[in-house]
Design a protein that fits this description.
Elements: E1 13-16, H1 39-55, E2 60-66, H2 69-82, E3 90-94, H3 109-115
Parallel strand pairs: 1-2, 2-3
Helix pairs in contact: 1-2, 2-3
Length: 121
């Protein structure tokens, strides 16, 4: 790096962005039990993404802009599956829709947090 601050350390956060699918809400108003994908399908998609980011050398993982606690859980389970020894730090951000303090899936932040798996360490 040939820039004025090249000697300063730099870190790369591997972004695991939101999907356009939700596990908590049916996309079909007429069939509330229907889901566009399963937890395992979403976890598998996240596993592929996490492997690529870790293999690519990211310094931490950022599960970002999550609007559904169950989607967050799928991402965190995928991270634990790929990195069971917690070598890569993880950050999580959630989308709060309005002043009610709820996510787009209607969950409070407390419910969102309770649905997320606890760290292994």
């Amino acid at each position: 790096m040939d820039r004025p601050h090249a000697a300063r350390p730099r870190f790369v956060a591997g972004s695991i962005g939101p999907t356009n699918k939700t596990l908590s809400i049916s996309p079909d108003v007429g069939n509330p039990a229907f889901r566009a994908l399963t937890f395992d399908q979403l976890r598998d998609a996240y596993v592929e993404q996490v492997r690529g980011l870790i293999d690519g050398g990211c310094d931490c993982l950022l599960v970002e802009t999550i609007f559904d606690g169950l989607n967050a859980k799928a991402a965190l389970v995928a991270i634990r599956d790929v990195d069971p020894d917690d070598r890569v730090p993880v950050m999580l951000s959630a989308t709060v829709a309005d002043r009610s303090g709820r996510t787009l899936a209607g969950q409070t932040i407390d419910a969102f947090w309770c649905r997320s798996p606890t760290p292994t360490r």
